């Protein structure tokens, strides 16, 4: 898979390194000569150019890319790169970094963004995820289709504890994608049971999040009434 990354700072280089280890073809683009550090990621292609200019993106052959990642520290640049990648070059998957959470509302399909990654929001979500049981935590927003990656740790008192996955009537537009149980990562089957302490990861429409949280967090009636 060919991936172009706009922004060769610490974030862009880190992403490039991870993707190269997974066997992908990487092009790093940056307009600052000081950011062109070929020795730091020698396996990648490098291009000294302004990713907001059509001539630069033509030179980068963006139409050959399967994914474009807008990873600069400037939200305006990331939006322009995303829009050009999607509308001018038809890149199938565009991922954009959100630096200022106040700008997150802009990072949607209108600007060509398929997945928006807000580092501040992700960090706060991971803190919530680490300390919250029974509360739905939004980890990642997929702009295309208004879906989110959400997590909930199943509480002891959940009415669904011990229930098989296939017996649960999940809300519409909701998919259980992973169960994390201790050190194990499980791909859910209909026969798998939901156990207290399980970390459940869903892709769910935003409109279904409250319904999903209510379903998983509802307490059993122990009053006998």
Descriptors:
disordered C terminus, 225 residues, alpha/beta, 11-stranded mixed sheet
Commentary on this structure:
GO terms for molecular function: potassium ion transmembrane transporter activity. Residues 137-218 form the RCK C-terminal domain. InterPro entries: K_uptake_TrkA (IPR006036), NAD(P)-bd_dom_sf (IPR036291), RCK_C (IPR006037), RCK_C_sf (IPR036721), RCK_N (IPR003148), Trk_Ktr_HKT_K-transport (IPR050721). The protein has 225 residues and is α/β, with parallel strands linked by helices. The chain has five helices and eleven strands, in the order E-H-E-E-H-E-H-E-E-H-E-E-E-E-E-H. It has an eleven-stranded mixed β-sheet, with helices on both faces. The longest helix is centred in the middle third of the chain and has 13 residues, at 75-87.
């Amino acid at each position: 898979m060919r991936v172009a990354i706009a922004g060769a700072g610490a974030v862009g280089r880190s992403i490039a390194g991870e993707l190269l280890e997974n066997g992908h073809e990487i092009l790093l683009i940056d307009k600052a000569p000081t950011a062109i550090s070929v020795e730091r990621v020698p396996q990648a292609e490098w291009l000294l150019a302004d990713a907001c200019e059509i001539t630069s993106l033509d030179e980068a052959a963006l139409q050959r890319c399967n994914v474009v990642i807008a990873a600069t520290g400037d939200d305006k640049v990331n939006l322009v790169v995303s829009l050009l990648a999607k509308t001018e070059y038809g890149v199938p998957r565009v991922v954009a970094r959100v630096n200022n959470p106040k700008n997150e509302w802009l990072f949607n399909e209108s600007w060509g963004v398929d997945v928006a990654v807000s580092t501040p929001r992700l960090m706060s979500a991971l803190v919530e995820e680490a300390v919250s049981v029974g509360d739905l935590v939004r980890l990642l927003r997929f702009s295309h289709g208004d879906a989110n990656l959400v997590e909930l740790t199943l509480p002891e008192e959940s009415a669904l504890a011990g229930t098989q996955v296939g017996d649960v009537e999940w809300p519409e537009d909701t998919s259980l994608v992973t169960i994390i149980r201790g050190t194990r990562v499980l791909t859910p089957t209909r026969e798998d049971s939901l156990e207290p302490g399980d970390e459940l990861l869903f892709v769910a429409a935003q409109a279904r999040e409250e319904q999903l949280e209510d379903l998983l967090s509802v307490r059993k009636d122990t009053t006998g009434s």
